[in-house]
Specification:
Elements (H helix, E strand, L loop, with lengths): L24 H28 L2 H5 L6 H12 L5 E8 L3 E7 L5 E7 L6 H8 L12 H21 L7 E5 L2 E5 L2 E2 L2 E2 L1 E2 L8 H17 L2 E2 L8 E4 L2 E4 L6 E2 L5 H18 L6 H8 L11 H4 L8
Antiparallel strand pairs: 1-2, 2-3, 3-5, 4-5, 6-7, 8-10, 9-12, 10-11
Helix pairs in contact: 1-3, 4-5, 7-8
Length: 304
C-alpha cells in the first residue's frame, strides 16, 4: 500500500440506504411476535401453576383442563377476573366458583365440563333455536354453544326487565356473571325458604315470565329450584336452556313452566292454575324474530 487513497466512482457503490434492503422486515416482526408469545406462554404457565396449587383444583382437577385454564387466563388478562376463589356449587355439567372481578366486585365463574355435560339434553334445547343453526353433533361445539346461549339469554332477559344475574363475559366454556349474594351467605332457592308473601312473589314471577315471553324467550325449566331470594329480591337463574318462541318445543316448555310455577304457589295456599298463568303470560305479543345475540356479544367466545 503506497499511502495514497482514491475515491470510488459513484456507480461502484450501492446507493445510500441500500444496506437496509437486505433486512427482512417480516422476519423482524416475526421475531417480536415470538418474543411476545414466549412471554405470554411463561405468564400462562405461571397462572396454571397458581390455579393447580389451589385446594379446589386438587379436589376437582378434572374441571380445569388446559383449554379451560386458557379461557380463565384470557378472562384474567381482560380484567374480568382478578382473583379466583373456591367453589360455590358443583354439578354434573358445571361448577360455579366465586371470584373477584373488576373494581373489587364479587362475581361468579361458571365452568362447564366438556366431557361430562349432558350432550343429548343440551341438543334438545339447541336444535330448532335459530340463533344456533348448524351446530351439528360435535360434543365440544354443543357445549360451547350452550355457554354462549346462556350468556345471550341472560343479556336478553336483562334488557327485557327480568331480574337475572348480570352477564359479564364469556370465553369458551366459562361464563362470568354477577354473584347474587355472597359466597359465605349464598342466596336461597325459593324451594328452601318460607315464602312470607306468596301472592306478591307469584305476581313477580308471572310478570317476569310475561316479560321473557314478550322478549321472545321461554325459560324451559322454571320451578322453585331455578328462582332464588336474596335480601327480599327474587331472581331467575339457570337460563342456559331457555329457548326462543320459535323453537319447535317452545309451547310445550312454556306449558310445563306454567304448571310447575302454579303447582308451587298452590302449595303456598294460592288458588292459581297453570292454564290461568299461561293465559297471562301469552297475553302479550312475543318478539317476532330472534336477534343474533351470540354474534354481537361484547365478549365473544373462543371455540378453540
Amino acid at each position: 500500500m503506497n499511502g495514497e487513497f482514491g475515491f470510488l466512482e459513484p456507480d461502484e457503490a450501492d446507493a445510500p440506504g441500500d444496506e437496509w434492503e437486505d433486512l427482512d422486515i417480516d422476519e423482524i416482526a416475526q421475531t417480536e411476535a415470538d418474543r411476545i408469545a414466549r412471554r405470554q406462554d411463561d405468564e400462562f404457565d405461571e397462572f396454571r401453576k397458581r390455579i393447580k396449587n389451589t385446594e379446589q383444583f386438587k379436589v376437582e382437577a378434572s374441571v380445569f383442563d388446559d383449554a379451560t385454564l386458557a379461557a380463565l387466563y384470557k378472562l384474567t388478562r381482560d380484567g374480568h377476573i382478578v382473583a379466583f376463589g373456591g367453589p360455590i356449587s358443583t354439578g354434573k355439567e358445571a361448577n360455579v366458583y366465586e371470584a373477584l372481578g373488576a373494581d373489587d366486585s364479587e362475581v361468579a365463574a361458571k365452568v362447564y365440563r366438556i366431557n361430562t355435560s349432558n350432550f343429548r339434553h343440551m341438543r334438545e334445547y339447541l336444535q330448532g333455536d335459530p340463533r344456533f343453526e348448524g351446530i351439528g353433533s360435535d360434543k365440544k361445539k354443543v357445549v360451547l354453544a350452550w355457554v354462549r346461549k346462556e350468556f345471550a339469554n341472560l343479556t336478553r332477559a336483562r334488557k327485557a326487565g327480568v331480574r337475572v344475574p348480570q352477564p359479564i363475559a364469556v370465553q369458551r366454556n366459562v361464563l362470568v356473571m354477577e354473584l347474587v349474594g355472597h359466597a359465605d351467605d349464598r342466596a336461597r332457592r325459593l324451594a328452601e325458604v318460607d315464602v312470607e308473601n306468596p301472592q306478591t312473589a307469584y305476581e313477580v314471577v308471572r310478570e317476569y315470565m310475561r316479560r321473557l315471553y314478550a322478549a321472545g324467550l321461554v325459560h324451559g325449566d322454571l320451578s322453585e329450584y331455578n328462582m332464588i331470594i336474596h335480601e327480599g329480591e327474587l331472581v331467575i337463574i339457570d337460563l342456559g336452556q331457555a329457548v326462543t318462541v320459535h323453537h319447535p318445543s317452545a309451547a310445550e316448555f312454556l306449558e310445563r313452566d306454567c304448571r310447575n310455577v302454579a303447582a308451587f304457589f298452590s302449595r303456598q295456599g294460592l288458588e292459581v292454575s297453570g292454564d290461568d298463568l299461561h293465559e297471562y303470560v301469552t297475553a302479550v305479543e312475543a318478539k317476532p324474530a330472534a336477534d343474533p345475540d351470540p354474534d354481537t356479544d361484547p365478549n365473544p367466545t373462543s371455540e378453540e
